[in-house]
Each structure stands twice: as structure tokens, then as C-alpha cells.
Amino acid sequence: MGYDRQFLISLYQKMLMIRQFEERVKFLFLEGVMPGTIHQYQGQEGIAVGVCSALNSNDVITSTHRPHGHAIAKGLTVASLLHELFGKTTGCCRGKGGSMHVGDLEKGMVPAIAIVAGGIPIATGIALAFKFRKEPRVAVSFMGDGAVNEGAFHEAVNMGAIWSLPVVYIVENNLYSASTPIFEMVRLKKLSDRAAGYGIPGVTVDGNDVLQVFETAREAVERARTGEGPTLVECMTYRITGHSRRDPCNYQPEAERKEALQREPLRRFGEYLLKGEFVDQAGLDEIRAQVDAEIECAVKSAMAAPDPKPEEALEDVFV
């Protein structure tokens, strides 16, 4: 399939923005500069970017406890995210969400839900609202592989199926639920086979191939938008960072990690762009310099922003 050069470059830029953002945030935490905790997205960038590139600006996503990549792919700025992670009122959720609850409804992202599978029924409900209102919009639910064993997954996907709702369910199968391998939790070879139990299409794709993810997501989104109901898309990937900031990944075999690093999405797509002569190495270096500069500017801005006042803790509270 032929692609516009600028579109391909934009995919790379978004993936690199996620990777560099996560790397910068990791060191801010390790240095003790940033409060709270983090669950990061390195190695899974092709999924967020591939899926969100298939969406319209007014489509809506729900996310997980690992939401930074989804947020950037859906259009939130790194500045709004860093202000949020530093707990500033200028953050995307006024500093009250933190890492696991970033989002911006104006950008089409419900603030992330840290409960495993918690976003699936929310996305299904949003899709139901779209259908009632006859709005040509689509909801997408991102989830990890561990979510497919939760009751919320089964109930929500079944509801989406029986009512033919405009929703797409994206399973990011990075092979581990925290430290537990997926093969110890399910007997299926493909998690997408669960779709058959609900009478909807299920497909497994290489989540490290951003173009394959994009093409699959575009088809699933179009199907949902035209009234044909949900699709369950399993994206095979690998988390090349710890489950959370204190995780040394000792449960991941060394040979497995080495192989995963060879197949990670950013490296692969960069090689694809170079081989296809869409860009040269100098061009990739320039993109990286621009990305790093934007992130560094956002870090300085977030650190300089005033801290919230104690009385602001009483705002936005429902009683």
C-alpha cells in the first residue's frame, strides 16, 4: 500500500516522542525529582500510534495504568502531561490525576483508569451513547493481556457485540501481566480467539509493525463507524521496560529480551524509512533533536510552574 511520505514521518515522530518522553520521565523518577509512581510504555509505541492514527479527532479512547503512550498518540501535548506528572494545576487533569490517570476529554481521551479492565465497560458505554445519539463516532478501549481474564472484559465485550456498538477493543499483549507470563493464565494460542465467543471478528497482528496496526485498526474503526459492530484486535508486542519503575524485569529471560530489542517498533520503523528512502539518517537525527528539545522545554516549564495551593484540594470534589 502506498503511503504519503509526510504521513510516514509523522508516525515515526509520534513513536519517537513517546519513547523519548518515557525515557526522560524514567530518569526524573530515578533522580527523585518527580513524585508518585509510573508504569511506562517503551516497546509498545507502534500500537498507540497505529491505532490512534486511524481515528478522527472526535473519536474517544479509554486507557490503562500505562497511559502515557496513548495520551501522546491521541494528541495530548508532552507539556500538559509533564505538568500533570509534576502535580501542577496546569497539567491535563489539574495535577490531580498523576501518571495513571492522564487524559483530556477535549482531545478524545477519557482520563486513564488504573483498574485492570476498568476502561472496557466505559468505552462500551461511550459507544452506546454514540449509537443512541446517532453520532458517527467510535470508542476504542486499550487493555493489557491480563484484562481478558477479568469479568468486566467479558460483560462489556458481550454487550458491545449484542448491540453492535461502535467500539473497538485493543489488546496489547506484551506477554506479561506484571511478572506473570500469559501462557500461565490462558490456554489459547491467540487471545483474539476469544472474539468467537461473542460472535465478533477477532484478529491478531504484529503490534511492533505500526503500519500493520494502522491498517487493521482502520478497518476495524470503519466497521464500527458504519454500524457493523465491534472488533477484538490483539497486538503482539513486548514491554522493554519494567512493569513499574522499581521492576528490574528479572522474570524476563535474557535471550527473550535481546530478541525483543531487535524487533522493537521504533527501531524497525526507522530502518523501514531508511530502506525505502523516505528519509536519510540526518533526517532522523533532526527529528530526534526536535523531539528532545520539545520534551526538555516541557520539563523546564513543568518544574517552574507553581505548586497547587492546599485549599485547591477541596475543589473538583463531589459531596
CA-CA gap between termini: 54 Å
> What would the principal axes of the Cα set say about the shape?
globular
What structural class should be given to the helix and strand makeup? alpha/beta
CATH topology: Rossmann fold
The order of strands across the largest sheet is 1-2-3-7-6
* Total beta strands: 7
In helices, the fraction of residues equals 40-55%
CATH class: Alpha Beta
Number of helices: 10
Residue stretches low in confidence (pLDDT < 50, at least 5 long) are: none
Determine the strand fraction and express it as a percent band.
5-15%
* Average of per-residue pLDDT values: 96
- Give the SSE string: HHEHHHEHEEEEHEHHH
Question: Total domains, how many?
Answer: 1
> What integer value in Å does the Rg equal?
19 Å
- CATH superfamily placement: Thiamin diphosphate (ThDP)-binding fold, Pyr/PP domains
In CATH terms, what is the architecture? 3-Layer(aba) Sandwich
Largest sheet: 5 strands, parallel
Describe the structure.
There is one protein chain. The protein is of the alpha/beta class. It has one domain (5-74, 104-278): Thiamin diphosphate (ThDP)-binding fold, Pyr/PP domains (Rossmann fold), CATH 3.40.50. It is 42% helix and 10% strand. The protein is built from ten helices and seven strands. The chain has helices spanning 5-30, 45-52, 68-73, 78-85, 119-132, 151-162, 210-225, 254-263, 265-275, 281-304, and strands at 60-62, 139-144, 167-173, 176-177, 180-181, 202-206, 231-236. Strands 1-2-3-7-6 form a five-stranded parallel β-sheet, sandwiched between helices. A two-stranded antiparallel ribbon has the order 4-5. The mean pLDDT is 96.
